[in-house]
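[User] I have long wanted to understand how a fold can be written as tokens. Those tokens are not coordinates but codes from a learned vocabulary of shapes. Could you go through the record with me and say what the backbone is doing? Thank you; the sequence and its tokens follow:
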Amino acid sequence: MNAKKLQARVITPQFRDEKNGQYKMISFFAKKARGRMSAWLLQNRIERVEDLRGYEVDGYRYSLELSKADDPVFIRDAGA
């Protein structure tokens, strides 16, 4: 995808799982989480980026310290 051609703000959520004391992106879980977030966005009629902070599904929660404006990060602790 070429974000520049879209001429729109592109938000890229990241999903990270705790592994060996660090939060890492595990593609299998991240892909599943992106799908669930898409459903959550539609069901809750989310229109503002700030409202993504309320996403808490499958143990993932918003991380203020790891997130950037257009790259929100959601973390899940081991065993969640």
